[in-house]
Design goal:
Blueprint: H1 4-17, E1 23-28, H2 39-46, E2 53-57, E3 60-66, E4 69-74, E5 80-84, E6 94-100, E7 105-109, E8 116-120, H3 123-129, H4 143-152, H5 157-162, H6 172-182, H7 195-214, E9 244-249, E10 252-257
Antiparallel strand pairs: 1-6, 2-3, 3-4, 4-8, 5-7, 6-7, 9-10
Helix pairs in contact: 1-7, 4-7, 6-7
The structure holds a DNA duplex (14 and 14 nucleotides).
Amino acid sequence: MPELPDVEVFRKYLNRTALNKKIDKVEVRDNDILSDHSARSLQMQLKGKKFKATKRRGKYMFVKFDKNAWLVPHFGMTGFLKYYKDEDKETEHARVVFDFTNGYKLAFDNQRKLGKVDIAKGVQEFAEKNDIGPDVLEDDFDLGKFKEIMDKKRGIVKSALMDQKSMSGVGNIYSDEILFRAGIHPASKTERLDNKQVKKIFRALKTVLKKAIEAEVDPQKMPSSYLLPVREEGHKCPECSGKIKSSKFSGRTGYYCGKHQKQLS
DNA sequence: AATATTGTTCAGCA
DNA sequence: GTGCTGAACAATAT
């Protein structure tokens, strides 16, 4: 699940549930999830504090709990947040649980343990240290900037969009959706795209991600002309008379329409 | 039972 | 050194 729109939805969820509640303790149920710091130091730093504000950069979420101190959840391939009170509401793979003094808890659920919970001094500092590119939904990520980045990229365009060092936020699912809307084949070489095509991809990128956030990431609420609700091999293309195909691109399975997304030679 | 999976990192290669 | 690709990682579903 967790690409940019998913993380944005989780961030808003945290904002309306766990913000400004006093933290009583932190339960670390799986140490794989922690980055460098220990469970003990996480507990010591957070006890008695409140989550004060949230930010997001690409697929990373930032939760402020002190001056120059942010919790940084990252979900990996699976995961979400859950705020609850009763034990029986607890989710199956709650790896880190924040207990609040009001009796509620916030769980960082992460089935496959590829997610991480880190601590940073700030968004900028964390982004530089971890080489995370500009967030694609920021206002200053405009067509000029996108063109500049794409000009430097080689290889298949789907991978270029998914390279978090160049720009952050787009993953496997949404790169498919973006290229589907732009009518570009996922395996097109980035260096072969003309200005018009780059512009088309840029437009699609902004629209698709915004729409997904609006739809709260529910495929059923996405426009019916989108690929997402019908992302399976052999399905009829919602845009034209073509059929949906799938194939491996740089090791990831991508879906596209065999008719209106033509491969560049 | 082998194979797939929404992310990131790193070895291998050009 | 740089940049791209594919395997590995973990746990579960089909």
